[in-house]
Amino acid sequence: MTKFHEAKYYTVEKNSLILCKLCPNLCKIKPGEKGRCNVRINTDGKLYTLNYGLTTSGSRDPIEKKPLYHFLPGTCSYSFGTIGCNLFCQFCQNWHISRGSPEDFRSGMKKLTPTKAAKEAKDSGCASVGYTYNEPIIWYEWVLDTAKIVKEKGLKNVLVTNGYIEVEPLEELLPYIDGANVDVKGDKGFYKELCKVSHQEAVLRTCKMMKENNIHLEITNLLIPTKNDSKEHIQELIDFIVNELGEEVPLHFSRYFPNYKLDIDPTPIETLFKARELALASGLKYVYLGNIRDDNGSDTLCKNCGTLLIRRRGYYTSTTNLTNEMLCKKCNTFADIVWN
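-> structure tokens emitted (340 positions)
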């Protein structure tokens, strides 16, 4: 017997070998061993999750912190995180929890059932629940169970995710998700070199599936000097968004700082400005800059007439020139903002 929660999406192969089918890593896990994520274990021929309900945090965050700028702006999102990740980014900003083991953190984590988590979120007064900090796909079963109850309580569900998931589990989860920020990190070579995985196309597929299912989607791209900050790299991402997702999908370019195993100099500010100019010139309507102090890089402007609609200073937002229907007061153009 085990005290852990049985995982979904796996098959038992010969000699009790387990094939995990949650993400494109498709780990083949021997008895007594864990998958690459470090939180799914083969015990007695069954796959169990080691982090079901183990939360490293449960706190009120501004929705803009996710970042989500066009989804319930100015509201808070009650946010949960855990341990583990299915990517192995050499520049990870949360490596202490992403690369950690539940055994290392158990004394500092809170055990929450989905029912208790949903009640805690409802009582917080937040408009949504955010699954964030580490990769939410890695505790898929708990997120799925919690998201269902959260929906019943009238709150929204938000994923902050790397998008590295297989089709079938994503299809089961999407009906309960309202908004998402997907971190599209770079091209295939970038994922192989710096994230140590081989299926960048799965991330792009996740983005397209979210749009097809009418989930509010925003994209984040961390620009790392010499790795994904060339004009060609940036244009490839822009073209994907414009052609496959839509020109109204917000794009957040974020500044890199040295972290974990990568010791490249921080992204020059000018690189972010040029990336934003390129994205706007290529047809994207909403392009933002993160991890920098810039009064213009966080504001939302009308895509038609350029009127200021939302001013942001840090995580503080003030709305102006917007009707209750999210239309620009100057030209009556829809601001592509989800408000209910």
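The CA atoms of residues 210 and 217 lie 7 Å apart.
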